Amino acid sequence: VASSGRQDAGDRGVQAHGRRPIPQRVHTILISTHLLEEVHALCNRVVIIARGKLLADATPAELEARSRYHGAVSFSAAGSGVSQEMLGRLPQVAGVEVDPLDGRVTVFPRPGERILEPVEQLLREQGLEVSEIQLERGRLDEVFRQITLGDEVPA
Question: Residue 121's closest CA among 108, 112, 130?
Answer without folding.
Answer: 130
